[in-house]
Amino acid sequence: MEDLQSELADETPVWAIFGDLMSALVGVFVLILVWVLGYQVELSQSLQQEVTRREAEQDRRMVLEQALAAPLASGRITLRDGRIGISGSVLFALNSSQLQDQGRQLLRSLVPPLTLYLSEQDELLMVSGFTDDLPIQDGNLQFDDNWELSAQRALTVTRALIAEGMDPGRVFAAAFGAQQPVVANTDNASRSRNRRVEMAPVPRASSEDSAGD
């Protein structure tokens, strides 16, 4: 009888096992709760950063729109998503990279507001050349293809801006050829829209970015 009582005393009570199990479950629940709360805080911070970024981007576009109010009102340029668009026919004759007088006058009028904007925002100006999808006409010995034509037009506009007083350290050229049309190349009107030069303010590369390259 005494041996039986001793064995029963040595056995772990069920309530103790149940208590340990509940403690483990509570611990897991607490860990999950902490993770969920941390994720919510991180998500909230990310959303706030995105809202702040978009508000800053909107403010930049409004400043740029105000700086270019006069040429925008005259319809000589367009402004979409922070990109300044100029029809290729205003700047150049077909398949030519020689700047026309009306194009030079337009670029001259853009230099003062763009210079002020770039200086205040500490940004650079990317000048991009675009063409339609038609190949360079046979017999044109000046350009091998649309890539070369778009590159030369972008360089011509860049050099014209610098000649009119823009800081050479604030502007650079890029070429896209027939890539990235604004509309499908289906007829003469659509191709005319795709033959264009765009100018877009872009952030200056930080010293950290340069060091990482």
UniProtKB/TrEMBL annotation:
The chain crosses the membrane at residues 14-37. Residues 185-213 are annotated as: Disordered. CDD domains: OmpA_C-like. Keywords: Membrane, Transmembrane, Transmembrane helix. The keyword Transmembrane helix applies. Residues 79-205 form the OmpA-like domain. InterPro entries: Bact_OuterMem_StrucFunc, OmpA-like, OmpA-like_sf. GO terms for cellular component: membrane. Gene3D superfamilies: OmpA-like domain. NCBIfam families: PRK09040.1. PANTHER family: LIPOPROTEIN YIAD-RELATED (PTHR30329:SF21), STATOR ELEMENT OF FLAGELLAR MOTOR COMPLEX (PTHR30329). This is OmpA-like domain-containing protein.
